Amino acid sequence: MGSIPGGSPSEDLSTTRPSVESVVIIGSGPAAWTAAIYAARADLNPVVYEGEPSREMIPGGQLMFTTDIENFPGFPKAIGGQEFMALMKEQAVRFGTRVVGENITKVDLTERPFLLTPSYSQPVTAQTVIVATGARAIWLGLDNEERLAQSGGGVSACAVCDGALPFFRDKVLVVVGGGDSAMEEAIYLTKFAREVVIIHRRDAFRASRVMVDRALANPKIRVEWNTEVVDVLGGDEITGVRLRHTQTGDEREMGAGGLFVAIGHTPNTAFLDGAVELDASGYIVTPTSWRTETSVAGVFAAGDVIDPYYRQAITSAGSGCMAALEAERWLAHHGDPAVTAS
Ligand code: NAP
Fold it and tell me: Quick one: 239 and 271 in the same domain?
């Protein structure tokens, strides 16, 4: 729903593009921008393919959906997610990073230089690649959820993108999930909603204590425990949800003016199409501990696309730094043809 922030016009690389790029970075979250800052300061002339806005994801990644980042050192008074990503990008660009507002849709990593195909522009060749494409929202998988999400009928996986829309004002809004995302979305939505109901399938949240305490202390938030959403009601617009108690199996309907699904994320690795080794959940495997190299020599990965465990801005940024340093050292050992504009 709503307009999606982020994205930028593609930079015209025709005059600045070397015949073979030294480092191509795919993604635009903390891992990607940190890798770009390090690669640019190492004179590797990186280019970042920052992706295109879609219903599930926007350039800048998941922090674009985060209101206040309070746990990234250096920001004692917190910083908004969108401002934070804009600053990271600005820092990367300041050191000469080139940015293209396109996805990489296809890769051929069978030989160097690697061949990468963007959505619209010409394929690009690269000596090294850093994959930092992050992860995206998981949906419940209900037909009416998909229908109303696609039609803008009041179903969303991004409270920060959509919650402020007039559509959702002064209504009862449902948030599904029991993790930090659900807590954060619920708290955010209390700014606009009459009431926020968190629907969780168990009797305990998995979210961090501080987030749970904050959510439960909010007088506009209440919780339906041991409950799942089994259908979304409404024609053109959501009017409610059908709930099922997970222990008794009892079903009932509840009126609602919006549904926000916050049940986790899946790594954005489909475009790799098996070119690098993935684990069973689709995360890129980095076989050596404390290294970002993947199963393909010269291809590195960083951020949430390798990390189902920590998934924090600070750990993503750290692994982006590691990937850039490893790419730099790999190029030094394997010979990087001088990066000169053709
Ligand atoms: P998550 O921690 O994986 O939690 C997903 C939640 O959704 C779980 O409570 C899970 O229930 C529930 N769920 C999963 N599939 C479901 C389904 N089909 N139907 C109903 N419920 C379902 O995901 P997350 O909340 O997106 O957080 C991901 C990571 O990002 C975490 O490490 C988190 O700490 C971090 N994060 C941090 C912040 C912050 O620090 N401000 C904000 C957002 C996210 P069960 O508990 O029963 O499995």
Answer: no
